[in-house]
Specification:
Helix content is 38%, strand content 18%. Helix 2 runs antiparallel to helix 6, helix 3 crosses helix 4 and helix 6 runs antiparallel to helix 8. By secondary structure, the protein is α/β, with parallel strands linked by helices. It has an 8-stranded mixed β-sheet with strand order 1-7-8-6-5-2-3-4, sandwiched between helices.
Length: 249
């Protein structure tokens, strides 16, 4: 007779918060808000400076809205969403939504941004193939996350993308870690109990997107409640945000 008892997942380790600046690089508006925005609110509340870089404008994300009409709507919603959690710099690279390809052009653009911002920490979202083997990841997330990891190393190598140095962007080797929110390989987390409400409000700012999305992911409070409590149970807090941590120094 086989033992069907499931082993409880190990407790999360606390994230290192001894840093000053971070750059969040994600594929779409709303990617940071599905789980990581409450952590951002915690960190900006500590006086840390965090900037957002959106590879696309999410213009293919609302089925009932033409992409050219959708683009400015989603950009405005992202800027407001970021403001709610203390982020005042939001940039858009204008790659086409839904068909982002991993490759040298993307790595170059991300390395350029990392050299400009010179962050201690780079944040992205899950770039694994699935969310724990149950739900497949989206192609843009995978391409952007993997390119971000490589771009961090590219940013520190003056002999890769030499044109960036010619543009005046000096190499930056100061990124200590890359954090991937929502990764099934996440082993670290941060307490978001005090900033959970800000994280919900940040997602709710994507009103047009949520209205077009429908389903359980459109209920910001309920969806984030489940994620936050699950992570909090492994960190020993009420709510938490979990990340995969990759050391780069």
């Amino acid at each position: 007779m086989s033992d069907t008892t499931e082993q409880a997942p190990p407790p999360y380790q606390a994230l290192d918060e001894d840093w000053e600046t971070a750059l969040a690089v994600v594929a779409h508006p709303d990617d940071m808000e599905y789980g990581a925005a409450a952590a951002v609110a915690r960190w900006t509340g500590q006086g840390k400076r965090i900037s957002y870089l959106m590879v696309t404008s999410g213009e293919a994300g609302i089925d009932g809205m033409d992409p050219e009409q959708c683009r400015p709507v989603r950009e405005r919603e992202q800027v407001e969403s970021a403001r709610i959690v203390g982020v005042d710099t939001v940039e858009f690279l204008a790659y086409p939504d839904g068909v982002v390809e991993y490759g040298l052009p993307l790595r170059r653009d991300l390395a350029r941004a990392i050299r400009r911002h010179r962050p201690d920490i780079v944040i992205t979202t899950n770039f694994r193939d699935t969310y724990g083997g149950v739900f497949p990841n989206q192609a843009d997330h995978i391409a952007v996350g993997r390119a971000t990891l490589d771009a961090v190393r590219d940013a520190g190598n003056r002999w890769v993308f030499r044109e960036l140095t010619a543009e005046g962007h000096q190499p930056w080797n100061g990124v200590r870690q890359l954090w991937a929110a929502g990764s099934p390989d996440g082993l670290h987390a941060v307490d978001t109990t005090d900033t959970f409400a800000a994280g919900v409000a940040s997602l709710e700012a994507h009103r047009a997107y949520l209205d077009g999305l429908g389903g359980e992911m459109a209920d910001a409070a309920e969806f984030l409640e489940g994620m936050g409590r699950a992570a909090g149970s492994r960190l020993g807090t009420r709510y938490a945000a979990a990340f995969e941590v990759l050391n780069l120094r």
